[in-house]
Write a structure and sequence with these properties.
alpha+beta, Arc Repressor Mutant, subunit A, 504 residues, extended, four-stranded mixed sheet
């Protein structure tokens, strides 16, 4: 094979470390960014907060005064000393104006100030709206359902075998409070290593079913409801009818087949209504009383206020610490010094400036995007969801001359506090549906219309998806039945047959 040389022309996109850092910070939420900033403060001695810097300067002032007094006593020229300090400071600055590190920084950025304080649209708009939005730092472990049941089990005088059975049953209970294993499976697994009969498992199971919350350790929904009914006083109205429905006809209640239920039971309407109301008062997921739900903390990045009849976006400047370059460590850097310590300080100074600049760019971009969203959705802040206008990422990207991927990063996990609630920035973006007059209507506005129609429907005769589509068509909104069903499911609204009232 003959070897030849071939010349190819190509393009390759290389992301600088500064750009990678800016992109990474841009997509972080406020809570994640707090953690990121704290890590940066711990790893970089040249990076400091404004508060820390102020605290550090106070004792230095005292030391400076003592030194001045000492110099006067010793006949030292104070003015000459100040001139030397000023000269040393100028030499330090020359490192970044004439040296290698300074050239690199000067090419990329212009530094007016070596600190970053988040800016708002007006310096007079600082208030205490965010004073109460600090996250509770206490990370105490909540009590789980297993812990709750285990605590009750240990209060009983059980033998070693009974305790083993109880522990096995409790471990087989899921977060909803139901057994994930059958009694036979539990008995077989225990009989391998211990002499345990199935009757012993059943006996312990009945004891656990009397634990709090009532209805726990049930096999299925019907079993759980039956256990809860069993613990009610015998003089409870319509108790017998409710037990009969749960034991034999629970499927008719689930399907809202009230006519057939009335025929099967041959009871009075009043008794059936009371029994159904009693069943509805029970909890089909008894474990939900104990199992803690994870608390999701949201700190808004942007707040929206009306200033001079115009809605404007304000940056939540209290959410993040104010950063700046540590002046003390910066003063230790000397030009022409190639020692290990001096190179370490130079590198960290450069990284600190890059980090501050990246944070500033993040918040400037966020504020610009928020203001553009508000500009296009003015009607939403006045009238609510029904006035939401169609808007996609390309609209904002084109207006701000940014890439759509940048807008996507800015609007993900970023929240805006408005007078009508807290919304993720992505909430304001939605597709559009054509109207009969040639205009467009946003999907958010359509969902709001569907919700209003469902809320206003008769309890005994809910409207179908097809009927909702017809009502929307009368308002000039052309949507298909499947589109209505899609939007209804997104709002967690059950179908019409499941919304029918159980009253007889």
């Amino acid at each position: 094979m003959k070897q030849t040389l071939e010349l190819k022309l190509g393009q390759k996109l290389a992301m600088t470390p500064q750009l990678q850092q800016a992109i990474r910070l841009l997509q972080l939420s406020v809570i994640d960014l707090r953690t990121e900033i704290q890590t940066a403060l711990e790893n970089n001695p040249l990076l400091d907060t404004v508060e820390q810097e102020e605290n550090l300067t106070e004792p230095e002032t005292v030391e400076s005064d003592n030194e001045d007094i000492h110099s006067i006593e010793n006949g030292t020229d104070k003015e000459s000393a100040n001139k030397e300090e000023s000269s040393a400071s100028n030499d330090t600055n020359d490192v970044f104006e004439q040296g290698t590190a300074g050239d690199e920084l000067k090419e990329d950025y212009v530094w007016d100030d070596e600190s970053y304080i988040p800016r708002t649209t007006s310096s007079n708009n600082r208030d205490n709206d965010w004073s109460g939005m600090e996250i509770d730092s206490r990370n105490s472990s909540p009590t789980t359902l297993h812990d709750h049941l285990d605590w009750q089990m240990r209060m009983l005088p059980l033998s070693a075998n009974d305790r083993l059975i109880a522990e096995t049953i409790i471990e087989a209970i899921n977060e909803d409070g139901y057994l994930t294993l059958s009694i036979e499976d539990i008995s077989q697994s225990l009989s391998i290593t211990h002499d345990i009969e199935i009757d012993e498992v059943v006996a312990i199971l009945h004891q656990i079913q009397s634990f709090d919350p009532v209805g726990v350790a049930a096999i299925d929904v019907a079993d759980s409801l039956h256990i809860q009914l069993r613990h009610l006083p015998e003089d409870t109205p319509h108790l017998d009818t409710a037990r009969s429905i749960v034991d034999k006809h629970l499927d008719l209640v689930a399907h809202r087949d009230l006519a057939k239920l009335k025929r099967v039971l041959k009871g009075k309407s009043t008794a059936l209504s009371g029994a159904i109301s009693l069943i509805q008062s029970l909890n089909p997921r008894p474990g939900s009383f104990i199992n803690p739900s994870e608390t999701r903390y949201i700190i808004p990045d942007i707040t929206v206020k009306k200033v001079n009849e115009t809605w404007v976006a304000l940056l939540n400047e209290e959410a993040l610490p104010k950063l700046q370059v540590n002046r003390y460590y910066q003063s230790l850097i000397r030009r022409g010094d190639n020692s290990k310590d001096n190179r370490y300080l130079k590198e960290n100074l450069q990284e600190a400036r890059w980090y501050i600049k990246s944070l500033q760019n993040r918040h400037d971009t966020l504020l610009n995007v928020a203001n553009e969203i508000i500009k296009r959705q003015q009607a939403f802040f006045e009238e609510g969801d029904e006035a939401m206008k169609p808007m996609v990422l390309h609209d904002i990207a084109d207006a701000l001359e940014l890439h759509e991927s940048t807008i996507s990063r800015v609007t993900t996990n970023k929240y805006m506090q408005t007078p009508i609630g807290v919304f993720e920035l992505k909430y304001f973006f939605s597709s559009h549906v054509s109207t009969t007059d040639g205009g467009t209507c946003s999907a958010t506005a359509i969902r709001s219309q569907i919700r209003k129609l469902v809320e206003a429907e008769p309890a005994g005769k809910p409207i179908s998806d097809n009927r909702i589509a017809e009502l929307l068509s009368q308002q000039g909104i052309c949507v298909a039945r499947r589109t209505v069903a899609k939007y209804r499911e997104l709002m967690s609204i059950p179908p019409s047959n499941m919304r029918k009232s159980l009253t007889i």
